[in-house]
Batch of 2 targets.
Target 1
Amino acid sequence: MNENITSRRLTISIAILVAAFAGGLSLLQAAESPPGPLYPGITPVCPCESLTDLSLPNTTIESAVVDASNNMCRVTAIVTHPPAGDRVKVWIGLPLTNWNGRFQGTGGGGFLGGHANSLRGPVGLGFSAGATDTGHEGGSGRFALDANGRQDWQAIINNAYLGIHEMTVLGKALTKAFYGKAPRYSYFVGVSTGGRQGLMEAQRFPDDYDGIVSACPAINWHRFVSGSLWPQVVMLEMKNFVSKAKLDAATAAAIAACDADDSVKDGVIDDPFHCAYDPKVLVGTRVGDDTFTEADATVIRKIWEGPRTQDGRFMWYGPERGADMFPYAGTTGSGTGDSPLKGKPFSIGHEYWRFYLAQDARWDWSTLTYAGFEQLWTKSVEQYGAVIGTDDPDLTRFRDHGGKVIITHGLADELIPAAGSVDYYKRVQQRMGGGEATAKFARLFLVPGVNHGFNGPGARPTGLNESIIRWVEEDKAPDKILAEKRDANGKVIRTRPLFPWPQVAKYNGNGSTDEEQNFGSTEGN
Ligand SMILES: [Ca+2]
């Protein structure tokens, strides 16, 4: 593969990430009011610049400078793990005034471990805050191979779990050095990979955080990221690439078929898990200048079904009906004349196959077969599950430490199948003593009709930071989260309640379906 193609793919990868990341970040910071101070009137006990003198094992504090425009002392440090020679970059922001007594860790997206810009939001709310590159720059998965083309396990581990832990340890130490007091509570707030990083902390370093908001988490990484190439192998094996127009037509038809099942016709399938719409209905219909075929219906059915072994056994979930199928299929062309239909794998999945599974930067995805897919998907589970799977349901130590976690996932997530979060939460319930016992410290809120960036026809959750703080500090568990939909001018045009899974919102039959008070909760999903 030449450099042009490589850099173009990287650009696409980063574009998708930035879009999802921005949506997620705005989700987590929208309209949040600053939490009250835990140490009223506290001020720094040393100059920002003096933090470079702090001595911590395997840590070099490169700079500590006042960033007046963001009211913070901004610290940059490198953490290493001798003799590996690795460099995990950590950014810590410490409010110059009005520190609220809490620390907040932030996460990344895709292969991006995190970003220094993520400090601004939480510091603006009075948190001391941390971010890290988890040991590599940028959003490519190339770091998984060393200069000799072999797996760089230190880099893989730093990205999978160790970088966030190092950031947290350093962030707490710098907070204590700067204010003379350790943070009383620590929170981790993340979206996508950030959501995965938060749950990884709960599983592996359960004392790091008191509260975690994990939005559309990239948990089950070893299953769904490799699984994201399933639409490509299906289309290759069937020699039938399905156009974007046909994929969109099938999504629209599924929404039309299942929209009213929740008794409100609003363009949203509240319960896609029970939407059984079959695209065979579309066979023979015209889509633009083309006709929908049996083979098109089969491909779409297999995309929704998700990866299966050659003898038909379940491997993983597909995106739900109502989620955009284009990011996984990436089909371009019209299929007519000089415009052949071509697929294009989801960029993060493609990089994972190249750098983790095939371990060959030049690996050609168009050589995929069902047999090859099954073989390397299985390798992914076996070789990387324990490292980056983030699907350990044993949260005993986190619970016993007093930890609380809110998981939320859009049901029209086009990049991470929402069923994976339900699968994980069910396993947590089984491991942690049942639904009621689990709900005392971990709750899942599914969000109908929103995608990976929490955008779409549905309403997006609000007040997640406030909810986790109230749960941790006042022991008030979130029984309901308010979701709202705004128009282009920012005006709220619809509100809906979200209830902890398996409860779902149900219209009570009276009043506006755009007002949350007209919905109650019922058992669902
Ligand atoms: Ca509906």
Target 2
Amino acid sequence: MMKKYTGLSTRCVHSGELADAQGSPHTPLYNTTTFAFSSTADLLDVVEGRKPGNLYTRYGLNPTIRSLEEKLAAIEESEAALAFSSGMAAEAALFLTHGKQGIICIGDAYGGTLELLSSQLPSLGITTNFLLGNEVEQLPALLKKSASLVFFETPTNPALEIFNIRQLSEIAHANGALVAVDNTFASPVNQRPLALGADFVVHSATKYLGGHSDITAGALLGAQSLLEPVRGWRKNLGQMIAPETAFLLARSVRTLVLRVERQNITAAAIAHAMQSHPRVARVLYPGLPDFPNHAIAAEQMTGFGGMLTIDIGETREATSKIVDKFRLFAIAPSLGGVESLATQPVTTTHHGLSAEERHRRGITDGMIRLSVGLEEATDLIADLHQALA
Ligand SMILES: Cc1ncc(COP(=O)(O)O)c(C=O)c1O
């Protein structure tokens, strides 16, 4: 029986950890593919689900993976959790299980998610529809045409758009649909979508949960009854997280609160510094009081995150020149690690879209997305100043 700790930091450190006969204070790495039983009766108890236990790693029945999943469930305050080999694996398994009657994606989303939803799932006969932030009022009508799953990111990539989780969940539920929120950008430190009414949380654990740019992993959280059918897809699509990765991810989650709280503070300092820079046309950061939907962010988030986007309002080439001058920010996609990264959405996450589609989504040539790491704020601000000079 899982012990319940009230403090998030305590849950990050202690939840899910297995008592170890050798005295390890945390769950050891069981780099094992199969587990032995003392009798056929014992084996059948696990195979037939009468007893929890370890059996075969691809099924998730491995102590390191089960321990990680208990920790992940505890930090998102979820009944259950499934760990995956990547964030995309988690999304794909969710969509294949609960999106068969149609999926509606609200707002901008990660490029891989958009590719899966716009071309790959429709090729299997799954209907997908898309509503941008300024089209959300069409949701009830679209839901009535039949959709079983509403999916969105909040904050979104790269414009940090904020969606009202509680309100959208109420609309979806009133129309018989489930709601999945990609909580990758916020992390469980800043936002708990399940407590706000969502049915699922999905994570690219590659980002803040992993936190060191050295793990590719994913997670899906929600009620046991909703995750049980997803488990079957994960098993037979072979999407299981490797035990080594599960071990590293649990290690990282133990410091999640410290890292994200510091990233929140540094990102806010950078956002304020960039607001007064003459070369910066706009700063997109949910923590700024004049940011659209700041009030909703303030209500549903406990921190505003380590991601921000500056828009210098210039051409793609002029913007690339600035990016190329960074000395501390590395030019790289991805986010959530200890090292700060800068990326031009037009050259990475939104590179595949036409200029018209980028315009429709509010993605400009002058945008630079910053993932704030754990360096000193003064050093990062100095790097931005010298690049913008
Ligand atoms: C918001 C978001 N969701 C999902 C994904 C996919 O995660 P992964 O790369 O772990 O498959 C990403 C990756 O960049 C992301 O940024």
